[in-house]
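@channel sequence for tomorrow's demo:
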Amino acid sequence: MPRSKWAIILAVVIPLTACDYPDTAGVVEPVGVEPAFAAQGASNPALIAEGRAIFRFETFGDETFWTDTLRMHEVIRTSVSPNTALEVGLKVDVDALPPAVIDGILDGTVRLDDPATTVALLGLGAVLGVVGQVDADGTLTHVGITCALCHSTVDDSFAAGIGSRLDGWPNRSLNVGAIIALSPALKRAQRRVYDSWGPGMYDPRYNLDGQNIPVVLPPAFGLRHVKMETYTGDDVVSYWNAYVAITQMHGHGHFVDARIGVDVNNPPDLVSSKLEPLRAYQLSLEPPAPVEGEFDAGAALRGQEVFNGLAGCASCHLGGALTDVGANRLHAAADVGQDPAYALRSVTKLYRTTPLRGLWHPPQLVGPYFHDGSAPTLEAVVDHYVQLFGLNLTGQHKADLVEYLKTL
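structure tokens (generated this afternoon):
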């Protein structure tokens, strides 16, 4: 069934408009489309197209770190075959491959156990989130990373890990730590930390405070419906884009936030001019539609009633984005049954209510949930809150609630 037709059915069966939920006192801005987006993004296709190119291919000059410091170009050209790359969760854009390469993969003449093939794929711009410079002799001389490394995946339409791009989808099979740990420039203790993270996990503050508290890679779709898109509600989208580009990707620019004691200056500034179009593209990315056949519509309708009524979920999951961050509400770790350690490293020291979008879309999006991945399934999420709040839900109530969550 086409996505548009499925969306119409869901709009009838399970309405998700903001008017379904009660308004709350103290709302500073309504939860919904960011006011600036209509002028900045939706009405400016050229800006969105520019942002898409930045999201997919802009390294902000971070080759100076990934090449000169970590020497990852050496690792890739000698040790990382396509099979190895796929094993650690890197993805290949099938739409960037010439027909001859596709035919060669199918008939085995393009070897997926040869690092030279990885270099060739980088030369084609086909490895999501990794940009390589390949000279006339076929030698990889520089390598850098982009936003798409962690916040894109593929639809597996050609093979596992090879397909068309899905921008904004978190790469939950990507083992960032294992990739970094391949660097010959790291000390053994550093490798142990990176190897401890596992697929789909990343610590965006480890290199700044030395603590090791990885979190689940979040989606970069549906952002325009959320006022502050971080687990701890620190600031707006462009704040986090700048933070990651400069302090994590090691791009060139200057990021300062005295609230958390961060001042990283790596001139010249190659980030600031990219933030506006990058934001416009991210705000244009819609969450994926519910997956036909992956939920029971009747049970989901009952689950919506549980969500809004008996379970009380709608007291925090408000509006079209199903979060109360737009109402200037954040939560102490104990209030939501979470470990406070990660929040304590942030500006707010609190957690925001998770926006509920794109929760269930096999095989790419099937958990884990919560900032630390402590709930492996939607069933575990429901059980967590049943126990935390002492909810009087039957097995049927819980099962119906899970079916409803699959539609968000």
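heads up for whoever presents: The mean pLDDT is 90.
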